[in-house]
């Protein structure tokens, strides 16, 4: 329901706006926080291109974590761990590669956000 409502609104509804702040009583530019998209199991960065473009049309700076389908084969390393079969496998070290990609995407989003004050 919320997503349908957001998509029904025009992109201009989400554009940055001005609001007063303690340091600048007249106005300070505020903006929408960057979105970080994390590809799900088996998906790659390109699978989220349409979502990324749509969010950018709404004024949302967007970063998609850089993941290829081939990267997901690394998860097969967990199959040789007996903990996988007992349901007690921990994310590390099997998913360290993915956690690194998440960190890189978050760092990129922080760079996009430099100099903005968020509402």
Query: How many strands appear in the DSSP assignment?
Result: 5
Coarse structural class: alpha/beta
Sheet with the most strands, sense and barrel status:
3 strands, mixed
How far from one another are the termini?
24 Å
**Largest beta sheet: strand ordering:** 1-2-5
* CA radius of gyration: 19 Å
Secondary-structure element sequence?
A: HEEEHEHHE
Total of helices: 4
Mean pLDDT: 82
Unreliable runs: 1-5, 17-21, 24-29
* Number of domain modules: 1
Main attributes of the structure:
alpha/beta; three-stranded mixed β-sheet; two-stranded parallel sheet; 13% strand; disordered N terminus
Compact description:
Helix content is 33%, strand content 13%. With 119 residues, the chain is of the alpha/beta class.
Task: Give an overview of the whole structure.
This protein is α/β, with parallel strands linked by helices. The chain has helices at 2-8, 49-57, 82-86, 96-113, and strands spanning 17-19, 28-31, 35-37, 62-64, 117-118. The protein has one domain (2-118). It contains 4 helices and 5 strands. The strands form 2 sheets. Strands 1-2-5 form a 3-stranded mixed beta sheet, with no helix packed on it. A hairpin with an 8-residue loop joins strand 1 (17-19) and strand 2 (28-31). The longest helix is centred in the last third of the chain and has 18 residues, at 96-113. The model is unreliable at 1-5, 17-21 and 24-29 (pLDDT under 50).
